[in-house]
Design a protein that fits this description.
Structural class: mainly beta
Largest sheet: 11 strands, mixed
Radius of gyration: 21 Å
Number of strands: 18
Number of helices: 3
Order of helices and strands: HHEEEEEEEEEEEHEEEEEEE
Amino acid sequence: MNKTTYLSILVLCFLFIEISPIKADNLSIAEYNSQMQRVRLDFTMPNGYVRHLLLGFTPDNAATEGVDYGYDTQTYDSFPDDLNWIIDGERFVIQGVGEFHETNQYPLGMFLTNDGTIEISLTALENFDNSINVFVYDSILNTYTLINDNSFSGDFLSGDYLDRFFITFTNQNETNDSDESESVLSIDDQIDPIAQIKYYRNNNELNVSANNLITKIEVYNLLGKKILSKLNINSKAVRVKLNNTNSPYGLVRIYTTTGIVTKKIILQ
């Protein structure tokens, strides 16, 4: 058995048993682990294989959001498609952090060599006195998907998706709506009162119009890479050229004086 295979089996054992703390003060290991709160996730790859992930909250803030020996386990095995916790730029399958706070966010990195459908599922919550909500936050679409009862799923092209997906426990869009601080529409909204988008493939021109002043436009490809950012527009209509769009689809985010609209467009 080579070293990589051994470590992979060891990681799998940790996922199904416990996080082994370095310091448990006056508590036994069993008592300490019974107080540690855990969020367990499954990532289903385009080929159907499943990656198990674990996020653990230490009751005494023994772990941090950085790399902590004994609490965090790196990704030693290599899958063609994968999802990992990202800590200090490295990939992990287990992340131990401090006490639970519902406003915290934990970044994920998704790495795909195959196009296809993926799923992120919540499989277990352990040692929480009260039920909590678990969301997948998409920073590009600005959407929060509750995964307590239903999985987050989508069709994605191959590539590395960094700084896009996060696990969080509060839907900030609902908080913002209750505060009436801004209005955010996703690509799934059927009513779009503030903006219209047209893309002309023959000259790579994007035409945007709105009922209110447009302040900024951002365009992303589906890998999450920003391919255009136009600031200080202050007009109800704008035309911009898109060059080097090597993706068949894109996401356009329009900032106006009354809210934000994000829409999916066909580029090719």
